[in-house]
Amino acid sequence: MKLPQDFVVKYGQLLGDKSDDFFASFDQPSEKGFRINPLKDNPKKIQYSLKKPVEYTRTGYYGNVSGKSLEHQSGYVYSQDLSAMYVAENVTISADSKILDLCAAPGGKSTQVASLMNNNGLLVSNEINHSRAKILVENVERIGARNVIILNESPAKLENVFKGYFDQILVDAPCSGEGMFRKDNNATSYWSKDYPQQCALRQKEILASAYQMLAPGGSIVYSTCTFSPEEDEQIIAWLVEQYPTLQIQLVKKYQGMDAGQPGFANGNPNLSKTVRLWPHRFRGDGHFIAKLTNLTDEVETKKPKKKNKNKRQRQTKNLTDEQSKLWKEFARDLTSELRFNDRDLRCYGGHLYFYHHEWPDISQLKFMRPGLLLGEFKKKRFEPAYTLALALQPQEFAQTLSFSKTEWATYVHGDTVQIHNEVPNGWKLLLCDGKPFAFGKVVNKTVKNFFPKGLRFSQ
Ligand SMILES: C[S@@+](CC[C@H](N)C(=O)[O-])C[C@H]1O[C@@H](n2cnc3c(N)ncnc32)[C@H](O)[C@@H]1O
């Protein structure tokens, strides 16, 4: 690979006699990894080999998964770089954790955190870029978590709502992406000598917002997929100088992982508690990870919320009597805990969501998914969402219908499926190999297709 000349000079100086190995690593293929999803029923019953677990993760394995497989479509597996999958392992998760993933698209880390939360607490997954936020929605919905809100906001806007709120904040920052050179040849074309410094300015702004949203005792996990000291050790050195209540925590180093280098910044010895995953020393594409805990016990008073009368407010209202009746009719086939109390149901523009009544008010923010999408009200009927199907275990819906792999392929392609035995008409949770993958509606031995149009694919 042709690396930018300034890059070669810079890392030649920083790495000395190790730099040849570093440069050579860009010509080696990336080794593949994937994670399984403990939110699913029988998460290990998949076609992929689980013989090679990734030792520094709870759910990671070496190997390649196909984006067109049943396991991928139904959210049982998620393909992820071997170094990227160590980041979320450093987020502390407890039963009622409030967690923010501030720079979340396409969703590698959000899906990992959500899959480890066991549907407890709250994950707010945010992405500033709208088209990337749509991809985030697709990826997060597939894993079937019930405790995720997906937003499309700038970090500064989030501060108005979430000041001092989160126990854990993940900042997987936009960066100069040097760890992407191997995968994406284009990544070298927008790299320049000054690029890391420009990225560092943006990272500081993002972290300043993150700090405002951190609860006393809470932690920030900061990561990049780049090697530049300006965006790694120097950012952490700046952060602890700027916010003295933050203390750098030790990130555990497994085989092939190196300590962050104090000499790459201001010499603060605590920087060696951070971790560097170099591509010539480790099997992934490369990452930097730091964890900092907020040792203050002061809770700043909330800023009063400014009301902007000209701003278009989304319509947020609870259910009409008719909507409530239609939902209850459908929910009879759900297990009792999933019938949801009215106070945990919200309707936005005809779409029904599960939104726990104790979650904060997000009506002034741009949201992509205000909670778990349950379905949509259409002229005097309720149509359950694909998202709900993926959030269910087979035993949680009374009406199921099992498909063969061929029938599954027909359905995800967008076609109807004929059935040969007597099955009562109505909504069915469709299963293949025991895995819920969509809702379908049986009408006189035909399963009408409700697979989302934008997600259809052929084998
Ligand atoms: C490294 S990527 C995140 C990858 C993601 N965490 C994952 O694991 O799939 C960084 C993200 O930050 C977003 N971003 C860019 N500028 C930002 C800003 N000023 N504030 C917050 N996020 C920003 C980018 O759109 C991008 O999606």
Automatic annotation (TrEMBL):
Residues 299-320 are annotated as: Disordered. GO terms for biological process: RNA methylation; RNA processing. The keyword S-adenosyl-L-methionine applies. Coiled coil: none annotated. S-adenosyl-L-methionine binds at C103, A104, A105, P106, G107, G108, K109, E127, D172. Belongs to the class I-like SAM-binding methyltransferase superfamily. RsmB/NOP family. This is 23S rRNA m(5)C methyltransferase.
